[in-house]
Design goal:
With 644 residues, this protein is mainly alpha-helical. The strands form 3 sheets. Strands 1-3-2 form a 3-stranded antiparallel beta sheet. It has a two-stranded antiparallel ribbon with strand order 4-5. A two-stranded antiparallel ribbon has the order 6-7.
């Protein structure tokens, strides 16, 4: 019996004991069904995504076990020894007038005393609302998405935020799908349309644009690339351009509508040189020092394509996850015959007897033990003839019945749109870290697999949902507690900072300058500007980089502000504005100001905004410069920097 099987056997036995000890299965308090809605309503305003008082987050069981400044927040099987229960029992928490009801208190105490059971542990037959193995229409899936979320919100006694208006939706979906704001013409056409189905049609139109693939390609590039790119042995040169080319290669595949299983196969089975196959860089990026390593390949593939963490199992059996050290190296064996670096890759075929790997000295434990190749979860690999090992591994990985592949991508896609995965972190699927919405997770992974891993189809399903189309705006008088609870439960869209790529492409559009250069402009002037380095794009990305794990984290500060406010390029004219003025016969100041708002904020100015801009323009002796001043003001507004 493998370590994983032993863990699962023990877990099942424990579950049976707990179920028998409870008054009945329906009465048992389970995390996702009974406890999380209470925490969402009462606690996540202070201990969720927006705020984490005392360093404590309460959205997941691992986060509560980790705890905050005062140590672990829960102790499995011992409510009286858990800080959360102590504060609830003493009425210290929640710190507001509306305390927990007796039923809510009982549910939390029972859950802790029972060992923190989850729906995922107890209920294996999760209802996704739509049948598996059938591809559905996007709007049908979108409706099911909303049903799952509405049920959770109802159980938490939360009201969802209202629907976004057209300008908010237009700007959000355009930035999310194409990585840049819409043009003024696109904004005006959408806002003026009376077509009741215009939102769905806009989603389809954006997915057909090459910019869609470009944005998703660079998003995956950022997920794959380590914070510090590896260097080669000759002068320490980093493969910056090669990494960019990899993102472009991914982008072309996404634009063409290639399915995720095909793209994955072409990454993981690649052989040759980077000159003709940009995806060669993948294995070098996830190895060590730019060199391919079986352990690094196994870790990265598990994290990026399967949603599980194997790093602890590299050296020992993972005490918190059902992975043994031998299981990690059994998966690594599939990459043991692959050699090379971020410039070239080759693989030597293996026979049945050589499809194994010896645990290296870096693992510290069981060094030298030979481990035969096996698929994660225990299925052994068997081949009667000599073959390359990565091919059968990818055959197993991308099979529709694989328990990891579809759910991992679906969860990452949800994270991309909502800044939080249904399972979070996105690469930590395990029984101790269940989906916040089990039925929703099952729905999305089923649909993705049934569609043949059609990326555009899954995006249509999510973006057509009311959940995605809710506003991020906050009604006056709404408490921080409710805002946090709504956001944590996907009942409100989070306010997110544009990524550096999104901001750069949007500025290039606004200024009509595909080579927009915001590098240091005068070495003798400080102004927060750095001396020109690399090229304009790389310097911008370096300066305006954001938190990849949390787009709601406002990472901009003085250097970014000084660049935007002081850089003379942003006050020296816009070719896009010049083109508009030339193409529009005798435009009025009112029309030009409206165009500027549409080109930046994707909306028309309010009466007060129009009046203020008119006043500024009328005072100017040079109206062209005045309009550029209005443009400068708009791109420096916080509204411009955010995805609402």
């Amino acid at each position: 019996m493998t370590f994983s099987e032993r863990i699962r056997t023990i877990a099942c036995a424990l579950a049976l004991v707990l179920v028998c000890a409870a008054t009945g299965h329906a009465d048992e308090s389970l995390f996702e069904r009974d406890v999380l809605p209470i925490l969402t309503k009462q606690c996540l305003g202070c201990h969720g995504g927006l705020r984490q008082k005392g360093g404590l987050e309460m959205r997941t069981i691992p986060a509560m076990l980790k705890g905050g400044d005062s140590g672990p927040a829960v102790k499995a099987g011992d409510a009286n020894g858990s800080e959360i229960w102590k504060k609830i029992a003493s009425n210290e928490m929640p710190p507001n007038e509306k305390k927990l009801s007796p039923a809510e208190r009982a549910a939390i105490k029972q859950w802790i005393d029972a060992g923190l059971p989850t729906v995922s542990q107890r209920q294996k037959n999760i209802d996704p609302l739509l049948p598996a193995n059938v591809k559905h229409e996007p709007k049908q899936v979108a409706k099911a998405i909303d049903q799952h979320l509405d049920r959770f919100l109802a159980s938490a006694k939360l009201q969802a935020a209202p629907r976004s208006d057209d300008s908010e939706f237009l700007r959000r979906v355009t930035i999310d799908i194409t990585g840049r704001v819409p043009t003024a013409q696109q904004a005006a056409a959408f806002l003026d349309s009376n077509d009741p189905d215009k939102r769905a049609k806009l989603i389809d139109k954006l997915l057909a644009m090459p910019e869609f693939g470009e944005q998703l390609g660079r998003t995956w590039r950022e997920w794959i690339c380590p914070p510090e790119l590896p260097s080669d042995a000759n002068g320490g040169l980093q493969p910056i351009n090669q990494a960019q080319d990899f993102g472009k290669w991914l982008g072309k595949r996404f634009t063409a509508g290639d399915t995720w299983d095909k793209i994955t196969r072409d990454i993981l089975t690649v052989e040759g040189e980077i000159k003709t196959k940009p995806q060669v860089i993948f294995f070098g990026l996830v190895g060590e020092g730019g060199k391919i390593t079986p352990g690094g390949s196994a870790r990265a593939v598990a994290s990026l394509f399967m949603g599980v963490q194997l790093q602890c199992a590299e050296c020992h059996d993972d005490p918190y996850r059902a992975w043994a050290q031998k299981e990690h190296w059994a998966m690594a064996a599939f990459f043991g015959k692959t050699t090379g670096d971020f410039n070239k890759i080759s693989e030597v075929p293996a026979s049945k007897s050589t499809a194994q790997i010896a645990i290296p000295r870096s693992a510290f434990k069981d060094v030298g033990t030979n481990v035969p190749a096996a698929f994660l979860g225990g299925k052994t690999f068997a081949s009667e003839k000599e073959s390359v090992l990565r091919v059968p591994f990818v055959d197993w990985l991308t099979a529709k019945e694989n328990p990891f592949f579809a759910r991992s991508f679906a969860n990452r896609l949800w994270f991309y749109f909502f800044s939080r995965g249904i399972v979070h972190p996105v690469d930590d699927f395990r029984e101790l870290n269940p989906p916040s919405h089990p039925g929703l997770m099952k729905l999305l992974e089923n649909e993705f697999a049934a569609s043949g891993f059609d990326v555009k189809h899954l995006i249509r399903c999510v973006c057509n949902s009311e959940a995605y189309q809710r506003t991020s705006r906050i009604a006056p008088g709404t408490s921080e507690q409710i805002i946090g609870a709504q956001t944590a439960s996907f009942g409100r869209m989070p306010l997110r900072l544009m990524s550096a790529d999104m901001l750069y492409d949007s500025l290039k559009l606004a200024y009509g300058d595909p080579k927009l250069d915001l590098r240091g402009f005068d070495k003798d002037i400080a102004n927060g500007q750095s001396a020109p380095v690399a090229d304009a794009y790389l310097e911008f990305i370096r300066r305006f980089g954001t938190n990849e794990e949390d787009a709601t984290d406002f990472t901009h500060g003085i250097p970014q502000m000084l660049t935007m406010i002081n850089h003379p390029r942003l006050l020296t004219g816009s070719k896009a504005l010049e083109t508009y003025l030339k193409a529009t016969p005798t435009p009025t100041a009112e029309q030009t100001v409206e165009w500027l708002y549409l080109a930046t904020l994707s909306r028309r100015p309010s009466a007060d905004e129009q009046a203020d801009a008119q006043k500024y323009v009328k005072k100017a002796t040079d109206k062209s410069k005045a309009y550029v001043g209005v443009l400068w003001m708009l791109v420096n507004r916080s509204e411009y920097m955010f995805v609402r």
